[in-house]
Specification:
The complex is a heterodimer of chains A (about 230) and B (about 80). Helices cover about 25% and strands about 25% of the residues of chain A. Chain A is an alpha/beta fold. In chain A, strand 1, helix 1 (about 15-25) and strand 2 form a beta-alpha-beta unit. The termini of chain A are close together. Chain B is of the alpha+beta class and about 80 residues long. Chain B has a single domain, classed as Mth169, Chain: A (2-Layer Sandwich). Classes of the chains: A alpha/beta (about 230), B alpha+beta (about 80). At the A-B interface, loops of A face helix 1 and helix 2 of B.
């Protein structure tokens, strides 16, 4: 599998993502600098987490206007696969590749902890087809603006089109803070119309080794890679 | 020409920062403060003399970068000396 990880000034999860993808696919992803217009044909492009451009103006706003975004949009129009994690998700939204908005966490706290995600029944997607509907994954989050917001009509459309991919879920009936940011309907990740672009707040690359406290991220990324290779 | 852009959150969009400020004001004894909404102000200096052109340019800037129109409203005002 040929993959690439996009790097902006302020990206800080790029190396972790490269390590994870290399571990899974056996091939080292290429690094794509944000000023590049020409990127080779790739099976997967990942926009990693971080604080691109210092989160100035709005998280991901300045990164979403970088030259590389045009190349990413071309890659998507050719049917290419893109994963945006955390700040990568914010960038996909700011670039209007995915709809809605990611606003400040409800309790105004930067949240850095493990969350439990549930795979939703959604459209065919290389990111989820290898997993079972209702399957739970323990993957950590670390963000300040991960509160997914969509106006009612958009939310309805996302549901109808089967584009809600991942939700935060309770482990126990009385668990109160299972949703780390107050997102609408506990949404943790959404898909593009064709299912080939996934934006998610949790960091799968931070759960790929038992020393991380879990390997569900490895499982998630492995299933993605398997589906993409076919 | 100086242009002031005021960006505010649309009605119905949760403003956690505004809520935190509100509860702090209430705690300070300002009990009549029933709601707080936050926003931001962006001041632009445009090297242009035509007001119509300045407004047109500022609007384009808002739509393309300065404002997230999914959750935010904006207002453009030319600052007269």
């Amino acid at each position: 599998m040929r993959s690439g990880v996009v790097i902006f000034p302020g990206s800080n999860c790029d190396r972790d993502m490269i390590v994870a993808l290399r571990k899974i696919s056996g091939k080292t992803p290429i690094k794509i600098w944000h000023k590049e217009y020409d990127i080779p044909n790739l099976d997967l492009i990942v926009i990693p987490g971080g604080f691109t451009f210092g989160d100035y103006l709005r998280c991901g706003a300045l990164a979403a206007r970088s030259p590389v975004i045009t190349s990413i949009k071309n890659h998507i129009s050719r049917g290419g696969t893109v994963l945006g994690v955390c700040n990568g998700f914010q960038i996909l939204i700011e670039a209007e590749i995915l709809p809605g908005s990611l606003i400040r966490n409800k309790k105004l706290l930067f949240t850095c902890r493990e969350t439990t995600l549930e795979v939703q029944s959604c459209i065919e997607s290389p990111f989820l087809s290898g997993l079972k509907i209702g399957e739970c994954l323990k993957i950590p989050v670390a963000h300040n603006e991960g509160n997914y917001f969509a106006p009612e009509d958009l939310l309805k459309q996302l549901k109808e089109e089967g584009r809600i991919a991942l939700k935060y879920i309770k482990q126990k009936d009385n668990e109160k803070n299972y949703n780390p940011n107050g997102s609408t309907e506990d949404i943790a990740g959404i898909l593009s119309k064709n299912g080939k672009v996934l934006g998610m707040m949790p960091h799968p690359e931070r759960a790929i080794n038992y020393l991380h406290g879990g390997t569900d991220g490895l499982k998630f990324l492995t299933k993605c890679v398997e589906q993409i290779i076919g | 020409m100086k242009v002031i852009v005021n960006v505010s959150l649309k009605e119905g969009v949760l403003d956690p920062e505004g809520q935190a400020i509100k509860s702090s004001l209430n705690n300070l004894g300002f009990e009549h403060c029933s709601d707080v909404r936050t926003g931001k102000q962006i001041i632009l200096n445009l090297d242009q003399n035509s007001e119509t052109e300045v407004l047109k340019q500022a609007k384009k800037m808002c739509e393309e970068l300065l404002v997230n129109t999914v959750i935010e409203n904006y207002e453009i005002n030319i600052l007269k000396d």
